[in-house]
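Following up on my earlier thread - several people asked me to post the actual chain instead of describing it. Fair enough. Here it is, all 396 residues.
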Amino acid sequence: MGLAKSLTRILALVGKELVEVVRRPGAVLSLVLGPFLVLAVFGLGYQGVKADLRTVVVVPDGAGLPTDPAGYQGMTTRGVKVLAVTSDAAAATQQLRDEAVDLVIVAPPDARASFEAGRQSQMRVIMNLADPVQANYATFLAETLAAQVNRALYKLAAEEGKGYALSAGGEALASIPPEVVAAPIVAVTENIAETTPGIVPFYGPAALALVLQHMAVALIALSMIRERTGGAMDLFRIAPVRATELVVGKVLAYLVLGGLIAGLSVALLVGILGVPMLGSVAFIAAVIGLLLLASLGLGLLISIVSDSERQAVQLSLLALLASMFFSGFVLRIEEFNAPVQVGANLLPVTHGIRLLQDLMLRGVALHPWQVGALAAIAGVLLTSSWLLLRREMRPA
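Reply from S.P.:
Thanks for posting it. Predicted structure:
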């Protein structure tokens, strides 16, 4: 009898939970359709290949090489797109620092003379990449490109009956080292980024931004849901408490809490994990503050459209899932198609990741417009949440 009573109570609890879920179709809908929609957008928006690296070729005066970008299309490897050819190495390098291009390839000034002297010519490949994964990818492309150039030289010699090896003559050719004959051109990579961190230091600021957004969203969403389910919202309607005061009080409380956690996290990242701290501390603090404000606005909006803690948690996790896919944390935003890139830039963490990485690893915000974008997102989310909350708190 005791076992039967226990089983009855268990089945009653099971039925209670199932009925509770069924009574809230919005929670079921977000649980089923949310992950599906995120994955569908990811599958439709991700192009499946890395974006071509925008490249400028520097041809020194007197090198005798083509000055038309179309002349290099047949020799460039997949993943490299030649945008321009110039003789001004300084201007090309400045474009690289401004992130207008991804690579600068400096052709050797006199490859033929170097070959006849028994020396390999160096093709300089300059990059400005703090991302270690992208830097390794660019190095791989540089080596592949050098092999393409060597094959083009061999083909030219075979087609015209002349070239470096043929014009050198048999006696002169015998004095040229075999490695020079096999590879007249070698790629020498140069990274002009302020720092070249490892995987952990590079992804440290990104992980910080992701954690801060999720923490702020989840904490304030659950807090507002508890106010509603606990009956406090009904008291607020009849008490002299305005929606403005409620929003400001909640936001300030979690802004202080998030700021303390962010300060401790930054200290651990710099002191223990070795993340560089090249930028202004005040600027970094301002970016973290804007990220927290925008995230709190998103959390408030989630709490207002949710009818239970369960749904608020689900929507917070969906926001985290979308942020991991589309914020640039795992895959570069440039690898998605244009509509998905627009949506990705509506996420607060997208700008938080890029700004924190630039400020901490480079010492400067390469895209200052993202500060304005983060402030605009915070303003829109907080204002929208305030308007909806004010309507909800209006006495019946």
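Residues 58 and 384 are 51 Å apart (CA to CA). That should answer part of your original question.
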